[in-house]
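Hi F.,

I've been meaning to write this up properly since the lab meeting, where we talked about keeping a consistent format for the predictions we share between groups. The idea is simple: the sequence comes first, exactly as it goes in, then the structure tokens exactly as they come out, then a line or two of notes. No screenshots and no reformatting. I'm using this chain as the first example so we have something concrete to point to.
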Amino acid sequence: MAIVDVTVIPIGTPTPSVSTYVAEIQKILQKYKDEGLINFQLTPMNTIIEGELSTLFKVIQAIHEAPFAKGIERVATNIRIDDRRDKKVSMNDKLDSVNKKLT
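Output, unedited:
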């Protein structure tokens, strides 16, 4: 399982706010989650998604396309992939590991 940090940036929006686009992306991610294909978490600056790498690439393409469907003509998407293959690690496992070291 891979974990992806992704930020979709619509360029040329009518206002400085991008929450409408973020909400649309979250709806798309929820559909994939409901199908049991991914897990995800919205943060104030990005979205973290976990799942099989081949699925994540499809998901990333779908969310990259979302602002175009809303009339935006330019989109920049930043992706960072953590693909660990020696053991299965989830988003929560990574957080738990750090939190244990804090006590």
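Notes:
DSSP finds three helices and four strands in the chain.
Strands lie at 2-11, 38-42, 47-51, 74-83.

If this format works for you, I'll send the rest the same way.

G.
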